[in-house]
Amino acid sequence: NGFNFNRRQLVLAYSDCNKDIQCKIWSLNNEFKFDEGLAWPDIETADQSSGSGIIPHFDLAVGNFIGHGSDGKSTSPLEQVAVSYNYYSLEGYNCDSYNNNCTPYVNQQITLVGIDGDLKKTATIWQGEKQEIDHHTPPMPTTIIALDNDGDSYILGNPAHISISDYHSLDYIIQEPPKHIDYLPVTAGVFDGKWELVNVSVFEDFYTELKDDQSTTVTTTAKSTSSQSIGGSASIDVKSTVSENAALESAEASVEVKAKISYQYDSSEESWNSQYSSREISFDGQAVWDDFLIGSISQLDIWRYPIIGYQNPDASQPPYSYMEIILPGSNTKISGPGKAVADWYQPLHQNGNLLSYPLINDDFPRDLGSFTLPDGSMVQDTMNERTSYNYGGVAQDLSISWSEKAGSGSKKSHKNTLGESADIKVGVKAKASVGVASDETDVDVDVNFNNTNSWGGAETSSCITSESKGITVAVPASGSEDGYSFMPAIYVTSGTGTLKVAYAVNPLGSSSGELWWKKQYGNRPDPALNLPNRFMWHEKDSEHLLGYWTFSKKMTRMEMRGFFMRHNEPDKVSGNYELIAGPPVEGETIRLCARIYNFALNQQHSLADIDVRFESIQLDDGGNEIGVRELVGDTTVSLGYLDDGSGDSMKEAWVAWNTTGKASTNGYRFYVTIDPENEIENELHELHAVADDAEAVDVDIDGNPIQPIHGNNEGFWPWGSGIHVLQKQSTMLQGIAAGEEWLAISALQIEKDGKPLAGDKIDVTAGSEYHIRAKVSASSHQTRFVNVFFYEETFSEKRLLAIKRITVMAQGSNTWFRWTPKELGVSTISAELVGMDNGAEGPETDLEVAVHPARPASSWQHSIFDELLQ
Question: What pLDDT score does 2 carry?
């Protein structure tokens, strides 16, 4: 009929002066305005001899009256118009010509219009018996309706509305190249000799850049888009599907079923998507000291409709099906280094540790997705050739070009989707509303995005990557005695559609460096945690002509990645132990989990049943530890060696944490210790081994310098404020009336050595470390984690400093991060809450700071700069 299946159409019929039935089919656009109509041939309601003068009456119905056809197999979705009317005729009857009086007859008929989608094709499918009538009182035609005689029509019931206010997604992940620094013997393999910090490749001129050899930057144009999915549940009640976890099982449906239930979505999709604007995504900097991330925290609205009348015939799937419509909403941009969002950016590798990266093999990258070329062909491969390069030797700028299979320099399109990410580890809370406004029920539910649930693969953005030719990896000149191989990969990830630059390595891939790596890491076991802040970079100063590395201070050195808090029961949909989405409530049992590594390069140093200890300790409001550590539990894990490529050199260990009696206004920090009783002999980095030749960075309680510990098998999480255990909800929200809840940042300050700095304009020194602290207060204890964004704004840009994901108690909770100012001049430090309603007016959350050069106060340059900053 010339129209898309998924357009609303209106049938208008009328009787003209010739007593014929005329009709037009009008198409309605998404604004419910009429487009041009299509007409069908007239339907005659009387023969030429009747002259009855009776105005015909008729009835209309629209439906698929042909159904499954005579063979019972037809599945055409086209509908027809059925017209029921009286057909008048004088044929075969006598008339009194003198009195001009005739007795006509009528037979009722039903005609279908639009056979096989052709409006000119009609068929009369039923005729009634002829009967005489009095033309003054003609009979009404037979009333008709579209009857679902075989029960294959479906109705969408009242929906549940699932609102997610802090969906975490990444558009770009740009890893810095795989580098290495460690505390090792000066003479490789001589462990009883002198040791020192050995910097193999952690240099600022070794970086990743999203520019090709013509300096064209990779740019992506992305536009949010709505999508739909079909999920299944054992429950017929939509309310019960959101009572615990918001996700459903993924469900399959036939093409016919999908066509029927998709009508409402498809007819509105264009209108919804027209509300979204495009955004440009690019990275014109360099990933030097850390991975660089670009993404957002955004709003997602999911409408879940029960499909009434349909039951899945596949006994292996849930019987009741639901259609879900996913609508992306507003978002807050994320753009910054990976360590700034360390609460949820949890890659497997450790920056600065070559041995933590995946090995070069056919399985790399494991999270490989697909993209589409301009000709419509889909490619599931990396965008570049799989080529290994060596570190060690002359300086070079590696031009990593798109492969011919990937369309060379042509544009490439892909989709951002809801799914499981190898790098983002975060559970979020959603608010589910069921029922009409007068009888609406709201519940808070956990949400985890998994590739196997009903949302897995649902599209949230469509992306087009520019016509660049590749990227650049800058490699500095270096000695070759500790060289190694690495392989870059540029690709779209499978779970979320993130554009990612990742690396795999082969420590033994360089013929000139192979022996060094075997001597250093092939002679002793090296069980370890992921400690990305174990070492600290210092810019050159008056005592150092060049930048240099030291151990970090103790509490910084022990900050770990790869720690997770999971539910203690597997999720009913995914079967996984999913991440918790908010602070635990007293009485819950939570799984405390940690990634455990073995960086040994020799099979004889595989580790069987090594002990892993989990402990907790409370923190006061200032982040200071209270009392002593409390044992949560011990467990064991067995690890292979790194070079076998099996992936067994890293596993997740866990213990159960019973929170009964743990509710407190203080938060908890968790410690993980590998081999706490020091039973593994001759570790490369023993638990409490002192780095005798390293520069002291800590002091004891009397202010005396102490040497750092170079062990890598003890760490803690979270880095900042602790995780609270809430009282049971029955006592948690008393006294707070509906609609009076509020959440706000109530204080913001900068600290140096534990003391707050005051003033209308706070003076700080470039290169020195400070703490920026925010206090978040609320009307009641918050049942979900809260995102606090910290920014630094200068005249030219507003830069993200950190995102802290914290628990907030009614009396207020502090969060903080370390800040080392670098750019001289005046800037503004600010903090804001993201991904939630802020129902209160808090005090000013901006601080003006003046960054001074790190020079003696008596220098004339410093004095002049001070005057300029006033």
Answer: 43
Query: Is the pLDDT confidence value at 421 over 80?
Result: yes
SS3 266: helix
Q: Residue 653 corresponds to which tokens in the numbers above?
A: 């260990």
Q: Which amino acid is at 379?
A: V
* Residue ranges of domains in the chain: 8-153, 156-204+224-371+422-466+487-508, 522-732, 737-869
Q: Which residue has the tokens 């002359």?
A: 394
- Angle (nearest 5°) at CA 322 between 319 and 327: 155
In one-letter notation, the amino acid at residue 571 is D
Nearest to 828, CA basis, from 843, 810, 844, 850: 850
Assigned fold of 522-732: Immunoglobulin-like (2.60.40)
Distance separating alpha carbons of residues 28 and 267, to the nearest angstrom:
10
| 252/257 Cα distance (integer angstroms) | 10
* Residue corresponding to tokens 């509710």: 663
User: Which amino acid is present at 186?
Assistant: V
Furthest-apart CA pair in the chain: how many Å?
A: 136
pLDDT of residue 235: 86
pTM of structure: 0.83
Lowest-pLDDT range of 19-28, 99-108, 136-145, 321-330: 99-108
- The mean pLDDT of 540-551, rounded to a whole number, is 84
Q: What is the DSSP string of 296-341?
A: EEEEEEEEEEEEEEEE---TTS-SEEEEEEEEEEEEEEEEEEGGGG
700 CB-near residues (< 8 Å, 6+ apart)? 706
Rounded Cα distance between 817 and 821, Å, is: 13
pLDDT bin (cut points 50, 70, 90) of residue 304 is confident
What CA–CA distance (Å, rounded) separates 329 from 307? Answer: 25
- The β-bridge partners of 592 are 565, 655
- Checking if the pLDDT of 437 tops 60, the result is no
Hey, which of 131-140, 678-687, 739-748 has the most confident mean pLDDT? 678-687
Q: Give the residue-averaged pLDDT of 583-604.
A: 95
Same fold, 522-732 and 737-869: yes
Using DSSP, state whether 14 is helix, strand or coil.
Answer: strand
The CATH class, in words, for 737-869 is mainly beta
Mean pLDDT (whole number) for 125-149: 76
Q: What is the total residue count of the chain?
A: 870
Q: Rounded to an integer, what distance in angstroms lies between the CA atom of residue 420 and that of residue 491?
A: 16
Report yes or no: 321 and 231 within 8 Å, Cβ to Cβ. yes
Tell me what percent of the residues of the chain surpass a pLDDT of 90.
43
What pLDDT score was predicted for residue 264? 59
CB 425 within 8 A of CB 450: no
DSSP 405-449: TTTTTS-EEEEEESS--SSB---EEEEEEES-GGG-EEEEEEE--
Bond into 527 cis (ω within 30): no
The pLDDT assigned to 839 comes to 43
Average pLDDT of 338-350? Answer: 91
Cis peptide before 718 (omega within 30 of 0): yes
Tell me the C-alpha to C-alpha distance, in Å, between residue 372 and each of 220, 278, 333, 470.
14, 19, 26, 16
The per-residue DSSP string of 109-126 comes to EEEEEEETTEEEEEEEEE
Give the C-alpha separation, 190 to 684, whole Å.
Answer: 11
First-last CA distance in the chain: 75
- Return the higher-pLDDT residue of 636 and 281: 636
pLDDT of residue 438: 46
Check whether 758 has a pLDDT greater than 70.
Answer: yes
The answer to whether 654 and 594 are in contact (CB under 8 A) is: yes
How does DSSP classify residue 271?
A: H
For the beta sheet containing 219-224, the strands, ordered from the edge strand earlier in sequence to the opposite edge, are 278-282, 219-224, 459-465, 412-417, 371-372, 378-379
Nearest in space to 173 (alpha carbons), one of 280, 283, 278? 283
Give me 358's structure tokens.
């995946």
